[in-house]
Design goal:
single chain
Length: about 240
């Protein structure tokens, strides 16, 4: 059964149509990737699901419920959590305080348990828990952004460009961690410029062009698709 389902979703910026009749689904336990060029509507899709961007048409369902009119906080409380593009950590707060901000809707006892899980996934964050987030490396800040999202106990974790600006070795680590997070029971919706790396860890993928879904299939199918190879894989 689909955990997340979009039906003919539209989202506008003034008179500009950012998304037009976008329909796709993410099944429980999957990693699903949205790929597309800059400006295709990938981040807008994430923000519309999260409630950060107004839904101008269509409907969004989560676990069978119509959540189209839900506010962001209600969505977070029900397990839809976004780790935003550009990391957006609080630079003057400690690593620990950044993480606790992610669990602001959870009870302290729950946060304590989740924190152990996050530190198990990201031992480096445990080592630096009293350090200001702004002093971390780019890779560590990305780990912190993902860890902070996990503190919200997501059923659906949405990751927007997690590899952006990171060294290749760190990118490899981040993608391995995304697989671990899925294996621990969290469904993942991924937006990623590094289409090849994303497809290698995904179950399925959708290709967005100018706010519309133009292609979909298993990740394995899209990896060998000539259209995808030419447009997104540099072949």
């Amino acid at each position: 059964m689909a955990l997340l389902q979009l039906e003919n979703v539209a989202s506008n910026y003034g008179s500009i149509k950012a998304l037009t009749n976008v329909s796709f689904e993410v099944n429980e336990g999957e990693i699903v990737t949205l790929i597309g060029a800059n400006g295709a509507g990938k981040t807008t899709t994430m923000h519309t699901i999260a409630g950060l961007k107004e839904l101008n048409g269509g409907r969004i369902f989560f676990d069978g419920q119509d959540i189209s009119k839900w506010e962001t906080q209600r969505k977070v409380k029900n397990g839809i959590v976004l780790s935003p593009e550009g990391r957006q950590v609080f630079p003057d707060f400690s690593v620990l305080d950044n993480l606790l901000m992610g669990g602001y809707l959870q009870k302290p006892a729950v946060n304590g348990e989740t924190l152990k899980t996050v530190y198990d996934l990201f031992p480096r964050l445990k080592e630096r828990e009293n350090q200001a987030a702004g002093t971390l490396s780019g890779g560590e800040q990305q780990m912190l952004a993902v860890g902070r999202a996990l503190m919200g106990k997501p059923r659906l974790l949405m990751l927007d460009e997690p590899s952006m600006g990171l060294a290749p070795l760190i990118v490899k680590d981040i993608f391995a961690l995304i697989q671990r997070i899925r294996d621990m029971g969290t469904t993942v919706l991924l937006v990623e410029q590094n289409a090849r790396a994303a497809l290698k860890i995904s179950d399925r993928a959708y290709v967005l062009e100018t706010g519309k879904i133009v292609l979909s299939g298993t990740a394995a199918e899209l990896l060998v698709s000539e259209d995808v190879q030419k447009a997104y894989l540099g072949m």
